[in-house]
Amino acid sequence: MEKPLTQNIRPDREPLDIREYEQAGGYQALRQALQMSPLKIQEMVTDAYIRGRGGAGFPTGKKWSAVPMGDKARRPKFFAINADEMEPGTFKDRLLMEGDPNLVVESAIIASYAIEADVAYIFLRWAYKLAAQRLTKAIAQAYEKGYLGWNILGSSYSLEMYLHTSAGRYMCGEENGLLNAMEGKRPIPRTRPPHAVMVGIWGKPTAVNNVETIACVPYIVSHGSAAFKALSHTEEGGTKLYGVSGRVKRPGIWELPLGTTLGEIFHDYAGGMRDGYQFRGLLPGGASTSFLVEKHFDARMDFGSMDKTGSRLGTGTIIVLDDKTCPVGMVLNLEQFFARESCGWCTPCREGLPWLRDMLDAIERGAGILEDLEILQEHTWLLQLGHTFCALAPGAVMPLDGALKYFREDFENHIRQHRCPYRH
Amino acid sequence: MSGASMLTDEEKREIDEELAKYRTKRAAGPEALKIVQKYRGWISDESLRDVARYLELSDEELDSVATCYNFIFRRPVGRHLILLCDSVTCWVVGYEDLRARIEQRLGIQMGQTTPDGRFTLLPAACLGACDRAPVMMIDEQLYVELSPAKVDEILDTYR
Amino acid sequence: MPTIYVEGQPYEVSPGLNLLHACLSLGFNIPYFCWHPAMHSVGACRQCAVKLFKDENDTKGKIVMSCMTLARDGTRISIADPQAVWFRKVAIEWLMLNHPHDCPVCDEGGECHLQDMTEMCGHVYRRTRFKKRTYRNQYLGPFLTHEMNRCIQCYRCVRFYRGYAGGRDFHTLAWHNSVYFGRHQDGVLQSKFSGNLVEVCPTGVFDDKTLARHYVRKWDLQTAPSICVHCALGCNTIPGARYGTLRRIRNRYNGDVNSYWLCDRGRYGYEFVNSPQRIRRPLLRNGDGRPTLAAKETALTQIGGVLRESRHVIGIGSARASLESNFALRCLVGPENFYLGTCRAEVQLLSAAIDVLRNGPVPSASLHEAAWADAVFVLGEDVPNVAPVLELALRQSTLRKPSDTIQDLHIEPWNDAALREAIQTEKGPLFLATTYSTDLDASATQAYHAAPQDIARLGFAVANLLDANAPSVPGLLAPIAALARQIAGQLAEARRPLVVAGVHCGMGAVLQAAANVAYALQRKNENTRICLAAPWCNSLGLGMMGGKCVDSAIDALRARGSTTLVVLESDLYRHLDVAEANNLLNTANHVVVLDSLRHKTTDKADFVLPAGTFAESTGTFVNNEGRAQRFFAVLPPAGEVQESWRWIGELLAASGQRSSAPWQTFDEIVEDLVRAMPAFAPVARAAPSADFRMAGQRIPRQSHRYSGRTAIHAAVNVHEPQPPADPDSPLAFSMEGYLNQPPSSLIPRFWAPQWNSVQAVNKFQEEVAGVLRGGNPGKRLIEPQADGQVEYFTEIPEAFERREGYLLVVPGYHVFGSEELSILSSGVAELAPMPYIAVNPEDAGKLIVRENGLVDVALSTTSHYLPVRIAPAVPPGLAVVPMGLPGIQWNGQPVWKKLLRT
Ligand SMILES: Cc1cc2nc3c(=O)[nH]c(=O)nc-3n(C[C@H](O)[C@H](O)[C@H](O)COP(=O)(O)O)c2cc1C
Ligand code: SF4
Ligand code: FES
Q1: Can you give the pLDDT at residue B1?
Q2: pLDDT tens-digit profile of A224-237?
Q3: Is residue B29 part of a domain?
Q4: Which of A354, A355, A388 sits opposite C46 (nearest CB)?
């Protein structure tokens, strides 16, 4: 099976240096891309039907084709590579950036070319120190080799690329929070429309894509849309980095065809539960997805299929809940994260999440009351998409909703017994 | 917004390098704070004003971003920063035990600094190494697959 | 006109509105917090949720924020939908999780938008049982209290302070549910518009600190429509009084004038009304020079006798007194003996300004028009300090052009955050030419600092570029010529250009240059407007009345012998040199002064009559736009205090000129005024006359919830006292009367059922944020000549040349300190600077003087020892002396002086 994303990544994650990368076929895709028109690349990406790997699954081709092109476009245009990866349970972009930084840089150049961006920023999570070192080096080498800068490889296309490291906030990963963070402002979300492709960084057209999303592009350029589509098991194109963490035998991350089933990933790759632990449920794609249980093992891990389960594909990194771990505690942990990271801009999120956290905390401590469950349940509707300003709070109530659905008796037991049954 | 900026030459040089990346001075604000923090350990009111002046921002404009980010410290921190991941996977596989161990060993609570100024213990959101959980970071170094015993060993290596 | 469907019923709405704006305009109640009629939508609070349906078959619908949704043709919504109702109720519950339940001790209580919305949403029971978050508050200066625990994080304060008013020392701090609104550290808020936070904040985070010292609930305040007396813009206000003292000033919406805003001088300058320096009884100075209090009758008899015996009576009018009082004085002394209470230079400048407005082709700009200008050229005026709310308007004007240039992005004008993100820091053309740097410099395209002559020359050059028929300027330096080209280019391109000038830089040529620019523009673009700043609240009224300057009064006195001088509401020492003022007051055989406050002139008077302040009077001011605006007494005058025009009417009788006082009521004097001077005809229509009734009733100055009316005097008398009569207006000093909305000029307070906060103003407008029902108050007295032949001014001053050993001293201004009345307020006094003289570093070098070093400058006949401020923005050869500060005795006429180091 072809692994366009991880083919160069060694088990110890020591990356290829630029010469090795080139020998492995690196930067060929860029050469090919520069022979094509940007619009052609957009078309190929559209045909490849790649849906955004940052978690929302927005079709990348559709996003790019909304960028104003040609002489009339307001300039400069920006490309922002979203490498903020702060979604709890998610560790996939780190692999790419640490394991194959040159691929990330090459991908970013091609993606930038596709929208005729003048400047590209890689917006990196503050904690990813190793990735920062490796990307810095990869960018510098790309400049040296003429892959970046003026008239790239003798073409008329020029691009500046910078690494920007965040100062640490989950909202920096939210597309619009990222734009504000880039401008040195508080990473609060922005009103949409106008979309970033019209009004982005410094008010100029900007495309924002996840690291994994753009990393697919060199393959699409060199092998064609059809080949890329064919890599997957479903109509959504490509491969996907799937990860599993929690008390499984082999926590890890694997590049697999998009649409691989949940069961396959859990059993075949993660090796099932660690000895002494039973499976209770999982979050299929990071903290802001809803719980799934055993009956979902046949479901395919792509955006469309996951939506049908009532959960979401999210980032595709699975977090497993075992029988010795308290589901209430786990949801409390998640809501604690979301409440802490809420930007404070809109009321439901700023006030609602701490309230949820306080109720969950009370329940977990044995101080909960049944009315709390009602209020918790209400909030899964109240904080849904469209009711809040951005997708943070709607994401936050996903696991709560799932937990109330599948582990309701755990909540009730806490309240009835006035203690956490999992603590001894 | 008046008065001279008391940044060191080194700080200025590094901030200037950052400024070259952006189209506004303001955009370099968080990064400039990180640079100054690297040298001074934390961002005191004076440091904040030094940077604000240099970037032609009002104190409030810079403080507004300084106080919103997790890793700009507006209060003094110890020589070494322990960032213990408290997000979901680490929590599932042992965060609470690690935290108890560290707190007990250092005699401080989460959010506090040891009296000798050696360590500050802070929670960190998911460090993106869930497959190797539980994890923590000390300064720039990531430690994975931790156990209480391993934490003891690691802490001993910091002075 | 789009049709929208609310609960299935069709309604026509104006195009381009968001649903919240449209529905509020239709009279529906939708709760909101972050939306503000002047600052529009950001969608943060999520309070304004409604159900939106795709079409008539959609029964499910979805929740949307009405403030963020365009009211397009065919939009179907439900406000009453149970889910929407529930969502809005929970939104309040969220805010209440942390909001303290301290309404009884909160100054906002009773006029709190949060209270209103909580009621409206039906949230009554608090389901949470967890601890509330608490904050530490900050000291923010003399004007505002800070009580952050009450914050509901609507972000209005920071949006107003920074985005709307351009302040930079205030921001959002911290994160998640501990976001904080304040300063980096405790300290005085630097913006002169900070007081608006009191009205912008929907709860009690920012409240009026001056009110807190003598606190009264809104419903217990006696209120009346009034006009600010602290500059010439004529912002509409609502003063509130209780127990005979003035307690606070609030904004009174006027869509043409100040809209939702006041400056801090206007809001907090009111304390002079309660000042210990108030004159409340007539004073007579006996032979030994000692003042004694006298009964009204005694005073009238004595002054009447003096007037009768005087061969000549000279009257000195006042630009801070009402039209009616000035007119009364003019009647008393006769037009030929009526002098304007301002110095020669100011009179000349003012009449030049009036001439430009009256005889020129360009209409004067309302503040509303100024805010909508898309290119502005300011000549000579320190707008932020002499006409503060105009600064606010000009700040908005800089957004117009950038908003126009991004039209292809199709951002609705109310989508405030998106619009600002799209235009970023870009600013439309705003050119400033002033003698020193001003608060607007940072927002200006170019700020040119030069001597008045050079400012005039720049203006003349711009006019010449716009129309070759305007005179050209010889010998213009290349950089100035380039600047002139840039300005002319931008003004010519603009759709609604505005020229701002005035009298404050003390040079007529600047005014003429501004007129030339406006005239030249008008030939190309009939949307051109001119705005001329004037110093006093009734400068234009007095100027239009006409009269000689106070300087010439002295000649008249000398020439005529035995003369009585009647001074109306004026401290001559503010307008004349000390020696001149002394001369004038000493030469007159008798001096009668009518004023509300003790000052140097009253100290020298033989007779002092206690005049009412604006708070105790009914009258008319003409603002700098030429708009006649009526103000009404909010307090019945106490003791012997009464309006000057009443005193003078009684003097006419006491002196035997009339058999009885000619004006028993305000309407009578207005009638006389209009008859005598037809130019003032619209004054009669500025507000309804005293016999006006709504449903047979007066408009009550007290709310229907006014409390303690009988209890006040219960210790003395349990019978309710008769409320004071008001023969001068249709308002009553009572809580009885018409409860619905009166005509716009009579609105004593904004209140509507369910709307106790200032947001009730929505209910008084034809369309929210538009004109008040029945039109905005005030009547314009001056419209340009329709067929006016444009005559350009042709006298171009020589370029400024420095003089060895001398500096040209020019006037400077401070919003806090330069104005006579407001400085008596403690907060204003606290923020007023100490006197100083500002010079360029180069000149300071020549003088060999350091910052704060003392210099001696012989301004007028008095020596001034002033500390030096070294200010690079002051052009070499100039020195700036701030007007009006205590100890500065100067009429503000630019003058060459030698500075001596002491
Ligand atoms: C609260 C929040 C946090 C997010 N964090 C990230 C992130 O760290 N990395 C990322 O790529 N996308 C993140 N996203 C999704 C982005 O908003 C955006 O959809 C994505 O970067 C677009 O890229 P894609 O289309 O390539 O996925 C986040 C979204 C939300 C609502
Ligand atoms: S302080 Fe007032 S205006 Fe500011 S966010 Fe809070 S409630 Fe809103
Ligand atoms: S008023 Fe609509 S979201 Fe605040």
Answers
A1: 45
A2: 999 999 999 999 99
A3: yes
A4: A388
Q: Do the Cβ atoms of A91 and A119 come closer than 8 Å?
A: no
What is the CATH classification number for the domain harbouring B26? Answer: 1.10.10
Q: Is the CB of C629 under 6 A from ligand 3?
A: no
Which tokens in the block code for residue C583? 């001369």
Quote the pLDDT of residue B102.
97
Q: In terms of domains, do B97 and B150 share one?
A: yes
> Which ranges constitute the DSSP H helices of C447-549?
452-466, 478-493, 508-524, 539-545
Per-residue model confidence (pLDDT) at position B118: 96
Q: Does B18 touch chain C (CB under 8 A)?
A: no
Is-contact A347 C46, C-beta < 8 A?
yes
Nearest CA in chain B to A92: B128
State the pTM of this model.
Answer: 0.97
ipTM of the complex: 0.96
List the CATH code of the domain at A327-417.
1.20.1440.230
pLDDT above 70 (res B14): yes
Q: Are residues B85 and B140 in the same domain?
A: yes
Of the options 3.40.50.1260, 3.40.50.880, 3.40.50.11540, 3.40.50.620, the CATH number for the domain spanning A18-230: 3.40.50.11540
Q: What is the CATH number of the domain that holds B152?
A: 3.40.30.10
Same domain, B123 and B87: yes
CATH number of C3-96: 3.10.20.740
CA of C222: how far to CAs of A87, C143, C645, C732, C822, in Å?
57, 22, 24, 10, 22
Of C169, C174, C425, the CB nearest to B58: C169
CA B117 to each of CA A308, B47, B106, B112: distance values in angstroms, whole numbers, following the listed order: 53, 20, 11, 10
In a domain, B2, yes or no: no
pLDDT beneath 70, residues of chain C: 788
CB C173 within 8 Å of CB B67: yes
pLDDT of residue B3 exceeding 70: no
| A280 in B contact zone (CB under 8 Å) | no
* Residue scoring higher pLDDT (B159 or A17): A17
A240-322 adopts what CATH topology? Ubiquitin-like (UB roll) (3.10.20)
Any idea which architecture C807-901 has in CATH? Beta Barrel (2.40)
Q: Are residues B90 and B152 in the same domain?
A: yes
C429, C375 Cβ separation under 8 angstroms: yes
What CATH number has the domain spanning C363-527?
A: 3.40.228
Question: Residue B4's pLDDT is what?
Answer: 63
What's the total number of domains in chain B?
2
Residue C590 phi/psi, 5° resolution? -135, 140
- Sheet bearing C529-533, strands edge to edge: C446-449, C430-434, C375-379, C497-502, C529-533
Q: Give the residue extent of every domain in chain C.
A: 3-96, 363-527, 807-901
pLDDT bucket at B2, cuts 50 / 70 / 90: very low
Probe residue for ligand 3, chosen from C33, C94, C120 as the CB with the greatest number of ligand atoms within 8 Å: C33
* Order of strands across the sheet that contains A119-124: A160-165, A119-124, A78-83, A206-210
Which residues of chain B neighbour A245 with C-beta distances below 8 Å? 89, 130-131, 133
Which residues 20-79 of chain A have a CB within 8 Å of chain B?
none
- Chain A partners within 8 Å of C90 (Cβ): 348, 378, 382
Are both B61 and B104 inside the same structural domain?
Answer: no
Res C342: pLDDT: 87
The answer as to whether B101 is a domain residue is yes
pLDDT digits (tens, 9 = 90+) for A249-308: 999 999 999 999 999 999 999 999 999 999 999 999 999 999 999 999 999 999 999 999
- What residues make up the domain containing B40? 9-66
| Portion 401-420 of A in contact with B at CB < 8 A | none
A281-301 in b/e form (b: 16+ CB < 10 A) is bbbbbbbbbbbbbeebbebbb
Could you report the per-residue pLDDT of A327-376, keeping only the tens digit for each?
999 999 999 999 999 999 999 999 999 999 999 999 999 999 999 999 99
